[in-house]
Design brief:
The complex is a heterodimer.
Chain A: H1 6-65, E1 68-70, E2 77-79, E3 82-85
Antiparallel strand pairs in A: 1-2
Chain B: H1 16-23, H2 40-44, E1 98-105, H3 109-114, E2 121-124, E3 137-138, E4 145-147, E5 150-155, E6 162-169, E7 180-185
Antiparallel strand pairs in B: 1-2, 1-5, 2-3, 5-6, 6-7
The chains are: A mainly alpha, B alpha+beta.
């Protein structure tokens, strides 16, 4: 079988190694991007769940206190009174 | 009555034919006769119609309903794929008012701005997402009871995030009761 000379083969091998390395890096970056995308998606979904939970907690508060607005720093709250019906 | 919200919906869950009844302007709970087939594509098409092969031609989606990427804040389809039945939670074909999310104080705008968003929902008759001067605020989407006088910090109904502004609503029992008379930044 014919064989390339060492001086011919070496550059080819080195270049192929570089290509393989770039492909590997590309694979890592795709995986990393996918990971970031997944973790962002997870965080968004987490925010949505917490937001819903917060809304449910406020609804529970309204069951006890009626319709209210609350200051989350101090715990102070104020009732939202209902206006009388307008007769047209 | 509109399509029940996610929280209001009980068994047997949301039914396609009922959503279709709501979309043609009949009541979600009515027994109005629909013509098969019913296409979710047509129900969700913002311009309405029957291009998806429906037996009925549907009117345009009522855009006064809040559209949000957050499923429990959303009240109408966004018109794009993927189509979801869940987009119809809370949808009202005959809605004439816009949802208003707020925090209320009887005393001052700064106090209203110190509160977090209330679970209570009010409705206003303005043409913008948030109420402005001259708009009237109601406690329900169809009734005549107006909001009580005071200061209201405004929140974006599609995200629940503060808009950084407040409006003052006039009280009393006169014809102007419930009307927005002033506004400002928190």
């Amino acid at each position: 079988m014919s064989k390339l000379e060492e001086k011919e083969l070496k550059p080819l091998q080195e270049n192929q190694n570089k290509i393989n390395q770039v492909i590997t890096n590309l694979g890592f970056s795709v995986l990393q991007k996918h990971g970031i995308k997944k973790s962002r998606k997870k965080l968004f979904s987490e925010i949505e769940e917490l937001d819903k939970e917060q809304q449910d907690l406020k609804k529970e508060l309204e069951d006890s206190y009626g319709k209210i607005s609350v200051n989350l720093q101090t715990g102070e709250y104020e009732e939202i009174p209902e206006q009388a019906e307008i007769v047209k | 009555m509109a399509v029940p919200t996610y929280d209001e919906m009980g068994d047997p869950g949301m039914e396609l034919v009922r959503v279709a009844r709501e979309r043609v302007g009949q009541d979600y709970t009515s027994s109005y006769g629909m013509t098969n087939p019913i296409s979710l594509k047509d129900l969700s098409a913002l311009a309405g119609g029957s291009a998806g092969g429906s037996g009925n031609s549907y009117p345009a989606v009522n855009l006064l309903n809040t559209q949000s990427s957050n499923f429990y804040r959303n009240r109408r389809p966004d018109g794009s794929d993927p189509l979801k039945m869940s987009e119809f939670f809370g949808y009202n074909q005959t809605l004439t008012r816009r949802e208003m999310r707020f925090a209320y104080s009887s005393t001052s705008s700064s106090t209203a701005c110190s509160y977090t968003i209330s679970a209570t929902i009010y409705w206003h008759d303005g043409s913008s997402t948030l109420p402005v001067g001259g708009d009237k605020v109601y406690t329900t989407y169809s009734g005549t009871t107006v909001a009580t006088g005071g200061f209201y910090q405004l929140f974006d109904p599609s995200s629940g995030v503060t808009n950084g502004t407040w409006v003052e609503v006039i009280g009393g029992g006169g014809g102007f009761a419930g009307t927005v008379t002033d506004s400002g930044s928190c």
